[in-house]
């Protein structure tokens, strides 16, 4: 297990943000490209792959499962696919690091393998609930052995012959949906997942691009098992969840104008743009195009005075990872922002209801924790402070954004987690900052 030295990120207030930048590749799509590339026949080449630690953990796991992968070097990766039935029993424990996506999607794939594997991760990941995937995968025929009734890592998986499943998921989670669909690749017949509201659909889109038969009806996705997957060329769009930090940083500083190029604007991921507009921000989408089955565009944002808003219901899965930084936008906005139906925040890399509220309060923000969200009374002047990341990359970056508009200096402790999803974050801020 890796131990890392603690790092601090020092943030000084900025007058405004200005300039043009391409954010790193999408984390969710980078993971899926490696996984499907490994299970396909033939070569998959990936460009603009996210060189973040989460996605590198996925690459390591597939190397340990016997897949020949060249790279990644400077965002380029070449995978020699082994086909659906070509993975090999790993001789080592598979270490997913901090990555819930690596773990849960991999569990779906391992459920269909005729061998035994063991998965673990860092302290945060070892505390995150896995029964949401091990329970349905057990129904399909896989055998799991883990702490707390197969809920916590480390977890042993004995895969085997799987039955198809029609699963009604209690949570809108792309990780749950994807784990079942990936297991469904190994079950003869139709496997389906129905969600309470639609979560990100990258798995469905990419399975189709690789040649699987996938049908989407309302909130139900159905996959035909045992397809032949064929290697693809994939250019990963920029990650809207990374763009979010820069978009909010510009939106809260009047006079700012930032253009982010080639950002993924998949409608299951673009809730942040809708909310920023609701709050009165000026976000313009230009140069819209398709890239490997995903919509991408350039986003131009200008800073302005923001208003509080309500974020709830089916909007939540469309911006779940952006809530920490949206809470920062709300603290700088005039009036009340109410975030509801977001209890899932409690089981992310940290309990984000508690960590967002606790850290923003240190700046002087008026923020209240709810069982399923947050109440933020915006408009109080914020003062720079010392924050903790709690090992959560999105908490570290959200608090850095809060510091940009505060009076005085802010220090983010535990900032070494930022490259989990956004290597180069502080350079990006420096490049765009006008003091
Ligand atoms: C992800 C799904 C979401 C998200 C995570 C990435 C994915 O998690 O929060 O950062 O790539 O499928 P849930 O499926 O738990 O909502």
From TrEMBL:
Positions that bind phosphoenolpyruvate: 27, 100, 128, 175, 352, 394
Pathway(s) where this gene product acts: Metabolic intermediate biosynthesis; chorismate biosynthesis; chorismate from D-erythrose 4-phosphate and phosphoenolpyruvate: step 6/7
Active site, UniProt feature: 321
Catalytic activity: 3-phosphoshikimate + phosphoenolpyruvate = 5-O-(1-carboxyvinyl)-3-phosphoshikimate + phosphate
Protein's cellular compartments: Cytoplasm
EC code: 2.5.1.19
Every Enolpyruvate transferase domain range: 12-429
Entries under CDD domains matching the protein: EPSP_synthase
Transmembrane segments: none
Example GO molecular function: 3-phosphoshikimate 1-carboxyvinyltransferase activity
GO term, biological process aspect, one: chorismate biosynthetic process
Primary subcellular site in the record, as a coarse category: cytoplasm
Superkingdom as given in the UniProt entry: Bacteria
Binding site for 3-phosphoshikimate: 27-28, 32, 173, 175, 321, 348
Subunit details: Monomer.
HAMAP family noted in UniProt: EPSP_synth
Function: Catalyzes the transfer of the enolpyruvyl moiety of phosphoenolpyruvate (PEP) to the 5-hydroxyl of shikimate-3-phosphate (S3P) to produce enolpyruvyl shikimate-3-phosphate and inorganic phosphate.
Protein family membership: Belongs to the EPSP synthase family.
Protein name: 3-phosphoshikimate 1-carboxyvinyltransferase
Organism: Desulforamulus hydrothermalis Lam5 = DSM 18033
Gene: aroA
């Amino acid at each position: 297990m890796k131990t890392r030295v603690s790092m601090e990120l020092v943030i000084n207030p900025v007058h405004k943000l200005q300039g043009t930048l391409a954010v790193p590749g999408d984390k969710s799509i980078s993971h899926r490209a490696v996984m499907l590339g490994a299970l396909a026949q033939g070569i998959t080449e990936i460009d603009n792959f996210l060189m973040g630690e989460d996605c590198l953990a996925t690459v390591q796991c597939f190397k340990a499962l016997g897949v020949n992968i060249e790279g990644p070097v400077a965002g380029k990766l070449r995978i020699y696919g082994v086909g659906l039935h070509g993975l090999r029993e790993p001789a080592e424990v598979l270490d997913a690091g901090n990555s819930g996506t690596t773990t849960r999607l991999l569990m779906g794939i391992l459920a269909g393998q005729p061998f035994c594997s063991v998965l673990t991760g860092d302290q945060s990941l070892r505390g995150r609930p896995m029964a949401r995937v091990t329970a349905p995968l057990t129904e399909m025929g896989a055998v799991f052995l883990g702490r707390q009734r197969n809920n916590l890592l480390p977890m042993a998986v004995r895969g085997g012959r799987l039955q198809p499943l029609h699963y009604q998921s209690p949570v809108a989670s792309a990780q749950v949906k994807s784990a079942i669909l990936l297991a469904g690749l190994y079950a003869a017949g139709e496997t389906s997942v129905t969600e309470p509201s639609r979560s990100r659909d990258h798995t469905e889109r990419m399975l189709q691009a690789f040649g699987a038969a996938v049908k989407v009806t309302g909130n139900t996705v159905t996959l035909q098992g045992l397809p032949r997957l064929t290697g693809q060329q994939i250019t990963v769009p920029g990650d809207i969840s990374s763009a979010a930090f820069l978009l909010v940083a510009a939106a809260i500083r009047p006079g700012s104008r930032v253009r982010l190029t080639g950002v993924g604007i998949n409608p299951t991921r673009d809730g942040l743009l809708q909310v920023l507009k609701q709050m009165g921000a000026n976000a313009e989408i230009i140069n819209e195009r398709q890239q490997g089955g995903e919509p991408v565009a350039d986003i131009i944002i200008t800073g302005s005075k923001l208003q509080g808003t309500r974020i709830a219901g089916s909007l939540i899965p469309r911006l779940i990872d952006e809530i920490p930084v949206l809470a920062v936008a709300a603290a700088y906005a005039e009036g009340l922002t109410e975030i509801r139906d977001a209890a899932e925040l409690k089981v992310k890399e940290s309990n984000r209801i508690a960590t967002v509220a606790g850290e923003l309060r240190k700046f002087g923000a008026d923020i209240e924790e709810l069982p399923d969200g947050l109440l933020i009374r915006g408009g109080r002047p914020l003062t720079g402070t010392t924050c903790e990341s709690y090992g959560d990359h999105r908490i570290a970056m959200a608090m850095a954004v809060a510091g940009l508009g505060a009076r005085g200096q802010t220090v983010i402790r535990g900032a070494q987690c930022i490259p989990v999803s956004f290597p180069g974050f502080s350079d990006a801020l420096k490049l765009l900052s006008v003091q």
